[in-house]
Specification:
The chain contains 19 helices and eleven strands. The chain is of the alpha/beta class. Helix 12 runs parallel beside helix 15 (344-363), helix 15 packs across helix 16 and helix 17 packs across helix 18.
Length: 516
């Protein structure tokens, strides 16, 4: 079966039935497809699960049934994966566009009358006319249909002699739902999303404003995508959509209400700025991340996930502080840092040093891509290195790549130990990218403002400006989703390790209040 799943294949319905596998390409988000402790959920998952029953209807024996396999990909890779034969269908809330129709075929739409609308942060400059977007930054899903509409607006702005918008394509890990969380937290001021997604999230996120009357594209249609020249597969899907899945049919109506009118499954983000209240936090993150060769944004995201930066937090398993590290781990020979319970700096230092020890001893090897060195180190921090290595062995036996986390060992982890470690790694990587992008753009904005001031007042252009604190995180990133309800046994160091970092001298301890 693994060979049938992983090999490239394009075929019509008869060939799909012979293979007994229907590979569904999806993007992982809180609308279309996500995992809970009760199994997969999402409107695309439930629609495709219903299609599986439709496809196998009648007195068909089990050995002749066609089974669905869901394969997750970043949104901007879905169509390419389909055309390469890595999946049989894309079910991920795709809007039908002329550009996409040149590459793939679409089924009949199952959601109609979708508008692409503006969503803003409540503290942003009010927007009532397109001209007021001139010079503004607007962030959208990478390779989404929104980009074409925004580019057309920029052409119109240029024709009026106005400055273009800065169109920011988010990291491929970030979906529309993630971007809405970033706007809600004030990281960005404007985005474009589909109206049905914007309206459900506006019920949960109180810091966003949905501009229903600011429409970039109206009457959009959402459908599934398949490869061209597959008439029987398309006819089967269209028959299912017409009789069951489209709006107006019972199943379509039930699922639409479940995912686009019910906010119960949306995790509410935090609305306070923890890092702003504790300025020395970022100083410690940068200091020890640099010493142990980590991206400090990654460390900040990990600390946010672990404790929301709360040094007083104690878990039920006895983990302490910002990095949620146990005294036994901090006192072990590969960390050796005392007083982690009350000293925030020592706690952060110990957590980063332990993460470095996991990286250097287990995963800093040629078989791993640099990003997977980090992914596996994070997984080991959460679940323990011994458990992660066991998952790698299972992945290898099942024909997956034991040295790749996403879509490989991650899949095994979900099946073997539940969702916590899977969500842990994903959340940290998403948050890291969000923090990095927002902070870097803020830095660029401040530099541009300073250049503009220098142009207005050349006499002061050589004078030192105010201390640049552009790397401060004056916001709280979007909150995580953890459906497992369980806490993994973590950072116990379940194998004896003597990492390369263990004999390095620690960086000198500097004053607790960093220079501002």
């Amino acid at each position: 079966m693994n060979q049938r799943i992983n090999s490239q294949f394009i075929g019509d319905l008869e060939e799909i039935r012979k293979r007994r596998i229907l590979r569904v390409l999806v993007s992982y988000n809180r609308t279309n497809f996500f995992h809970t402790d009760k199994g997969p959920r999402g409107i695309e998952y439930e629609l495709m699960a219903a299609y599986e029953k439709y496809l196998n209807r009648g007195p068909r024996k089990e050995r002749f049934k066609t089974h669905l396999v869901f394969l997750t990909r970043p949104f901007n890779q879905l169509i390419n994966a389909l055309t390469l034969g890595e999946g049989d269908i894309v079910a991920s809330g795709l809007t039908i566009t002329p550009e996409r129709k040149q590459l793939v075929d679409f089924t009949a739409p199952y959601i109609r009358n979708v508008n692409e609308i503006l969503v803003s942060y409540k503290g942003a400059k009010p927007i009532t006319r397109i001209e007021e977007l001139a010079g503004e930054q607007i962030i959208v899903v990478a390779n989404s249909s929104y980009i074409v509409q925004l580019q057309q607006i920029n052409l119109a702005l240029g024709g009026l002699g106005l400055e273009s918008m800065e169109i920011i394509q988010a990291n491929e890990l970030l979906e529309a739902e993630d971007i809405l969380e970033m706007v809600n937290a004030g990281l960005f001021h404007y985005t474009i999303v589909d109206s049905h997604i914007a309206n459900i999230y506006s019920s949960a996120y109180k810091n966003i404003i949905v501009h229903d009357d600011f429409i970039l594209r109206n009457g959009g249609e959402i459908a599934w995508a398949i490869n061209k020249n597959l008439p029987k597969f398309k006819a089967s899907l269209n028959d299912f959509i017409e009789n069951y899945a489209r709006q107006g049919r019972y199943l379509g109506n039930v699922l639409y209400r479940r995912y686009f009118e019910n906010t119960a499954w949306i995790q509410h983000p935090l609305d306070f700025t923890a890092l702003d209240r504790t300025p020395c936090l970022q100083y410690y993150f940068e200091k020890y991340a640099q010493f142990y060769d980590f991206d400090w944004y990654l460390i900040a995201a990990q600390a946010y996930k672990e404790s929301k930066f709360d040094q007083k937090l104690v878990s039920r398993r006895g983990a302490y502080g910002v990095m949620q590290i146990k005294p036994s781990t901090a006192n072990s020979k590969h960390v050796r840092i005392a007083n982690i319970k009350t000293d925030m700096e020592n706690n952060i230092h110990a957590g980063i040093r332990y993460l470095a020890s996991l990286r250097d001893y287990y995963f800093d090897k040629p078989e791993y891509a640099p990003e997977d060195v980090i992914n596996f180190s994070l997984a080991a921090y959460n679940a323990g290195p011994g458990r992660v290595r066991q998952l790698q062995r299972i992945a290898k036996r099942k024909g997956l790549d034991p040295y790749k986390w996403f879509y490989n060992v991650e899949t095994i982890a979900r099946n073997e130990i539940g969702l916590e470690t899977v969500n842990y790694v994903t959340f940290i990587q998403k948050t890291k990218e969000a923090l990095k992008l927002a902070t870097q753009l803020e830095k660029e904005k401040r530099l541009l403002k300073q250049q503009h001031l220098n142009e207005l007042n050349p006499e002061n252009s050589n004078s030192p400006g105010p201390v640049d604190d552009d790397l401060r995180l004056d916001y709280s990133p979007f909150d995580e989703t953890d459906d497992s309800g369980e806490e993994q046994e973590k950072n116990e160091g379940d194998e004896d390790i003597t990492p390369a970092v263990s004999n390095q001298p620690a960086p000198a301890i500097e004053p607790k209040t960093p220079p501002r």
